[in-house]
Amino acid sequence: MKHHGRLVLVTGAASGIGRATALRFAREGARLALFDRSPSIERAAAAVVELGGIAQWRIVDVADADAVGAAVSEVVSSLGPISCLVNGAAIVDNIAPLPQMTPQAWSREVGVNLGGPFHLIRAVAPGMIERRWGRIVNISSAAARGGLALQAAYSASKAGLLGLTRNAALELGPHGVTCNAVLPGLVGTDKVLAMPARILEAGIAAIPVKRIGTPEEVAALVSFLCGEDAGYINGAEIDISGGSHLNTLVLGSQKANRTAG
Ligand SMILES: NC(=O)c1ccc[n+]([C@@H]2O[C@H](COP(=O)([O-])OP(=O)(O)OC[C@H]3O[C@@H](n4cnc5c(N)ncnc54)[C@H](O)[C@@H]3O)[C@@H](O)[C@H]2O)c1
Questions:
Q1: What's the CA-to-centroid distance between 206 and ligand 1, angstroms?
Q2: Which of 260, 221, 216 is nearest to 240 (CA)?
Q3: pTM here?
Q4: Residues ≥6 apart with Cβ < 8 Å to 167
Q5: Burial level of 196, CB count in 10 A (0-12/13-18/19+)?
Q6: How many Cα neighbours within 13 Å face the side chain of 190?
Q7: What is d(CA 240, CA 222) in angstroms, rounded to the nearest whole number?
Q8: For residue 220, which of 84, 86, 9, 21 has the smallest C-alpha distance?
Q9: Where would I find the beta strands (DSSP E) of the chain?
Q10: pLDDT band at 24 (very low <50, low <70, confident <90, very high)
Q11: Nearest CA to ligand 1 atom 37
Q12: SS3 state at 231
C-alpha cells in the first residue's frame, strides 16, 4: 500500500477534489485527518471508514490560525505525526465585477484561500522538520496564471498560493519536506457539473482534450506528489487542465463566460 503508515491531513475534504483525495489516500493505506468548515465533513470521514480506513474529522475554519493550530494539535495527540498535508479548502464562489467586490469579501477569500494554507503549513511543518520527512501539496488553480473574470480575489489568492509554495519549498526542502502546487483547470465536481449546460459546453470547447477533468484525476496527482517516487519534485507548479493552460486565446472567451473554477 503506497501510503501505508502515513497520516494525511486534507483540508476542504467535505466535497469535490478534497473528498476524492481523502478517499484515494484511504484506498492507498493512509490514515486521514479531514478538516472542513462544512458539517458534511463527517460524511466524508464515514466514507473513508466504509473503505476500511481510519479518519478523524474536525470542523475548522482554515482562516482561523488559532483554530487550525488547536485542531492540528488534537489530531497529532490522537493519531500521531502528520506525514502529508493537502491544502484544498477554498472559497470558489465569490463572484463580482472588480469594482463591486467588497473589501470584506476580498479579505475573507484571501484569508481562506491563501491564509489557510499558510496557517496549516505553520502548524504541521515543525513536526515534519523534526522527522526530516514531509509532503505538502497546495491546490492552486489555472486561474493563478490566466486570471478569472469576476473572481479577482480567487485569482489573486491562487497566484499568491504559488508564492507560498515556492517559499515553503525553499525553506523546508533542506529538512526533507517538499512542497508543490497543482493547478487544476475545469474539474467535474458537483458544483461544476451543476453549471448551466451552455457554459459547460463552452468550457469544454476550450480544452484541448475536449472534456473536463475528474476529481479523481487530481487526487491521483496529489497522491503521486506525496509518494516516495516524487521525492525530487519540490517547488513545482503542475497544470492538470487537459492542456487548457496552453490555449490562452480560447481561455480568454471561456473566462468571460465564467466557466473555470
Ligand atoms: N473544481 C474545479 O474546477 C477547480 C479548478 C481549479 C481549482 N480548484 C481548487 O480545488 C480545490 C477544491 O475545490 P472544489 O472544486 O472541490 O470545490 P468544493 O467547493 O467542492 O470544495 C471546497 C471545500 O472547501 C471547504 N471550505 C471553504 N472554505 C473553508 C474554510 N474557511 N475552512 C475550511 N473549509 C473550507 C468547503 O466547505 C468545501 O468542502 C479548491 O482549492 C479549488 O480552488 C477547483
A1: 22
A2: 221
A3: 0.95
A4: none
A5: exposed
A6: 6
A7: 11
A8: 21
A9: 7-11, 31-36, 55-59, 84-87, 134-139, 177-184, 237-240
A10: very high
A11: 38
A12: coil
Q: Which ligand 1 atom sits closest to the C-alpha of 93?
A: 19
Ligand 1 binding site (Cβ under 6 Å of any ligand atom): 11-12, 14-18, 36-38, 60-63, 88-92, 112, 139, 141, 184, 186-187, 189, 191-192, 261
| Cell 484544498 found at | 88
Return the domain boundaries, the chain. 7-187+215-242
Q: Read off the pLDDT of residues 211-258 as tens digits, 9 standing for 90 and up.
A: 999 999 999 999 999 999 999 999 999 999 999 989 655 545 455 445
Q: For residue 14, give the ligand 1 atom closest to its CA.
A: 39
Architecture of domain 7-187+215-242: 3-Layer(aba) Sandwich (3.40)
Q: What is the pLDDT of residue 259?
A: 46
Q: Does residue 232 carry a catalytic annotation?
A: no
- Cell 480544452 belongs to 207
Nearest ligand 1 atom to the CA of 38 is 37
Q: Which amino acid is at 19?
A: R
